[in-house]
Amino acid sequence: MRKVALALAFCLISTCGVTGAVLAADKTDKTAQKSSTSETSSAVKQKKKKSAHKKSAHKVSGKSQTGKSNKSKKTAHVASASGKSNKMVVHVRSSQLARDYGVKVQKASYAPALGSAGNVRLESSAALVFDESTQEALLAKNDTAQLPIASITKLMTAMVVLDSKPDMQETLRITEQDVDTLRHSSSRLAVGSELPRSEMLKLALMSSENRAASSLARSYPGGLPAFVAAMNRKAEALGMSHTHFVDSTGLNSSNMSTAQDLVKMVSAAYRYEKIRDATTTTEHDVYTAGRNLAYNNTNALVKSQEWDIGLSKTGFIKEAGRCLVMQARIAARPVIIVLLDSVGKYSRIGDAQRIKSWLERESSGHMVSLDAPRRG
Questions:
Q1: Distance of alpha carbon 172 from alpha carbon 253, whole angstroms
Q2: CB neighbours (10 Å) of residue 216?
Q3: Where would you tag: which of 75, 122, 170, 175 has the fewest CB atoms within 10 A of its CB?
Q4: What per-residue confidence (pLDDT) applies to 107?
Q5: The overall pTM is greater than 0.85
Q6: Residue 178 and residue 261 in contact, taking contact as beta carbons nearer than 8 Å
Q7: DSSP SS3 for 142
Q8: Which regions of 133-282 does DSSP assign to beta strands (E)?
Q9: Enclosing domain of residue 301
Q10: How far is Cα 42 from Cα 50, in angstroms, rounded to an integer?
């Protein structure tokens, strides 16, 4: 019996040992498998990270002039609608504009001033600062790029209205035809609202009121088609050879121009006292449809004591980005500033401030872009 008991005890010990070994081996195997899975997952993540890095490196066009990676500026080569490479080479960010309008995109660059101003960092895709005294460009960035101009259009609308010498006290009525069915933008002028033509003009310019601008065109002799034709004739007469209009509001992205052409339009619009007055009015109230409506200027800079602005107009639709044109006196120098397709809500204001500071620092210098100074 003792031998049998010893044998049973030996078997039990052996069995426990084997079981322990098996459990230990299984635990080791699972640990190794987990480690292997973790390594594989890590490798996959590293691979994805490298792939993303390569894609990012492929898309981002180098570094900005500050030396930091510029994520908003990308390199792309876009064919025109005909499938052929567009001959016009400009410097803009790779955005909906580049894809829609067949622009060959390159990294923006600037030439330093002959003084000590250095480069002016602008967020706008296209810009032009024009000295009215010397009739030359002080700073130019993509100034030949033909882009949508949104409500900058309303400056031409105002000139065409005033050129026709209408009765400015005639009452205009907002109708269903003035309602924006393209973008469904809001308006505080309800259908049925009535105001004198002079008030409609002021609201269209200072507050970019689209229904007011529409009513101005609709009430023109021959209606909207005749009005748009007059807009394009006026553009041609001003030498705006790369400009085209299809409506009076700027809601249609087919209203297109260049920074160079817009300098000519701003210069012409500045000759109209009513346009100067309306575009620099900070606040204005109107009474219509049984209620009082308070309007503010869409350009906050007209309220600033630090600015001497003679004319101003803002614009925005998705395709055009944030736009701003101004006639102003900076450091005793009359200049026209054009900023198109600015990327952020406040960046066009920031660009204007940077340009002002630059001009003030170098008021005694002579500034140029990469291109030779332009005249006319």
A1: 26
A2: 26
A3: 170
A4: 36
A5: no
A6: no
A7: coil
A8: 136-141, 147-148, 171-173, 194-196, 256-257
A9: 124-361
A10: 12
Which residue reads 């505080």 in tokens? 188
DSSP 300: G
**CATH code assigned at 142:** 3.40.710.10
77-97: b (≥16 Cβ within 10 Å) or e: ebeeeeeeebebebbbbbbeb
Q: Distance of alpha carbon 226 from its chain centroid, rounded?
A: 30
d(C-alpha 199, C-alpha 298), whole Å: 16
Catalytic residue set: 151, 154, 208
Packing angle of the helix pair 197-206, 153-163 (nearest 10 deg): 160
Is residue 35 assigned to a domain? no
For 177, other C-beta atoms within 10 Å of its C-beta total 14
Residue 50 in any domain: the answer is: no
- Reported as a single tens digit per residue, the pLDDT across 105-156 is 433 334 344 333 457 889 999 999 999 999 999 999 999 999 999 999 999 9
Task: Tell me how many domains the chain contains.
Answer: 1
Residue 10 maps to a domain: no
For residue 177, report the phi and psi dihedrals to the nearest 5 degrees.
-65, -20
**141 within a domain of the structure (yes/no):** yes
